[in-house]
Amino acid sequence: xxxxxxxxxxxxxxxxxxxxxxxxxxxxxxxxxxxxxxxxxxxxxxxxxxxxxxxxxxxxxxxxxxxxxxxxxxxxxxxxxxxxxxxxxxxxxxxxxxxxxxxxxxxxxxxxxxxxxxxxxxxxxxxxxxxxxxxxxxxxxxxxxxxxxxxxxxxxxxxxxxx
Length: 163
Known about the structure:
- Helix content is 72%, strand content 0%.
- The chain has helices spanning 2-20, 34-46, 48-63, 72-89, 97-121, 127-152.
- The model has no long low-confidence stretch (mean pLDDT 88).
């Protein structure tokens, strides 16, 4: 229960920071998504099942500020967190190279999925937003992954087997 409360609180705090403070550190209008960086790192550490649910919750939060379409971020985050969970199965989680590169490629993948869905609905979006936003996400993911790693290794965040 403590794990769920911790994840909800962190997600809400990152959501507020994403929408209230991150626009002030934008570079030429491009901003990172701290919430997306967190859910990808968490999914890599804990697997696709736990990441899937956190991705859906975070996506629903992000959909609150998204134009006209409810569920697009929840859907794309769910897919990206599932992929990140599968990536995390075969890597050394204490090393940050693969999680950081994964964050870049999954940010691009999410951006392309959102672009396709918006195109089908008839809403225009620029490709450069995807590219520069993904690079910015990767840059922020470098220092933040070690904090995600420390969080996921706390005793109350570990899944214990009970027989």
